[in-house]
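ok here's DUF2848 domain-containing protein:
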Amino acid sequence: MTDLTFTLPDGSTETVTVTTLLNAGYAGRDQAEVQSHIDELAELGIPAPQTIPAMYPISPYLAQQTDRVDVQHGRTSGEAEWALVVLGDTADDVLLTVACDHTDRDLEVHSVAWSKNAAPDVLGHDAWRLTDIADRIDEITLTAWVDGDTLIQQGSMADLLAPHYWLGVLKERDLLRRGTVLISGTISMIPGVDQFADSWRVELKDPATGNTIDCAYRAERMPQPIG
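and the structure:
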């Protein structure tokens, strides 16, 4: 089991043991655009999901607050996302934080679920209570940079299915309980930027307050195998 600790704006902390980790996929709010993206991926050999939006169970230990992700080769990359961290059994007891879903792109052509289980979901150390920002959720921006200051993703939470949608899914599946963490799915990458970078940084920003939450890490190549 993995324990995650989050610092809230008032300086208090919440620690939760992750029992269920879920990665949303193809979760753009404009599902027609999502379908167009699926068609593009199909041309690259990446299998289409049977249902959109999708939701992939991930090994709970892969929810990590780390500054290093160990990778097996050079074709892995992150994805800018937000995360819901469930503290109780109601929608009023949920944290929102930033996340970066590191994914094995070579494995993705065989199975999206396999590719997402090949590396951690990196989460921020800070969080907001979802109820505190619910009235302006779509205004919160989501931005990612690679290799320092190269912008690769830029959008807002309005580009993705809203937290209340996924809280409904969790409730239907009896997963709205302490220890569940759901990662949102990602926004489009800026064309022409090399996603196979050595480092990733993702930021959530609340324009109303200027407050930000970020996570950042380096991708470190493992030694070459023998045999």
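+1. The chain is about 15% helix and 40% strand.
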